[in-house]
Design a protein that fits this description.
about 190 residues; alpha/beta; 9 strands; about 20% helix; disordered N terminus
């Protein structure tokens, strides 16, 4: 972290009790935007990135940015990738691509119970840093959102270098690595459990 950077405690909110409304998710219609920018202290703590394939204009996260209308999924990826994907079901397509690339870190909600998380994180990733507290993302104009993200976030590493960065960064969180995926299908007994 640089001397002028924002400290993690200023960007992460630990909540002991409810304090107003959270933005709910990256797709919150009440917030008036679907673009939620990475808090700068996150990428600063993780080091240099070569590419952000789904970047926002004017928000520096890597040396090279793919910005709409360029389709970052259709372009070639190189080096260490930073990925804050569009949130929702399409996030799993982006994580699949990052797993295939094998060298990068993604910021997603820690929705460990979802099929996408099981497939793209537990079955493919090398490490996960579950961030303590809830992040405050930034609006497209760069201002910090007044409410937290409404859900816990995690950083997902694909590749040895990415996993090392999560292990060595100073972001407050709990690191999980070196797990062995074991697939156990959902057992159906007397009712639908989907």
């Amino acid at each position: 972290m640089t001397e002028n950077s924002t400290t993690p405690s200023a960007e992460i909110e630990l909540r002991a009790e409810p304090t107003g409304r959270a933005m709910g998710s990256h797709q919150s219609h009440r917030a008036g935007t679907t673009t939620w920018l990475t808090p700068p202290h996150i990428t600063e703590a993780l080091g240099h990135f070569d590419l952000d394939p789904c970047a926002a204009p004017g928000w520096v996260t890597a040396d090279e940015h793919y910005i709409l209308p360029t389709d970052g999924l259709a372009e070639s990826w190189h080096g260490m990738v930073w990925l804050n994907p569009p949130y929702g079901s399409e996030a799993w397509t982006w994580l699949d691509r990052l797993a295939e690339h094998g060298n990068g870190i993604a910021l997603i909600f820690a929705r460990t119970e979802t099929a996408g998380f099981v497939e793209q994180v537990w079955n493919k990733a090398d490490a996960v840093l579950f961030l303590h507290g809830r992040l405050h993302f930034h609006y497209p104009d760069g201002t910090r959102a007044p409410a937290n993200s409404g859900a816990p976030s995690c950083l997902v590493a694909y590749g040895d270098e990415a996993a090392r960065r999560l292990a060595e960064c100073d972001l407050p969180g709990s690191l999980v690595s070196a797990w062995r995926p074991v697939y156990r299908p959902v057992q159906q007994s007397g009712g639908d459990r989907s």
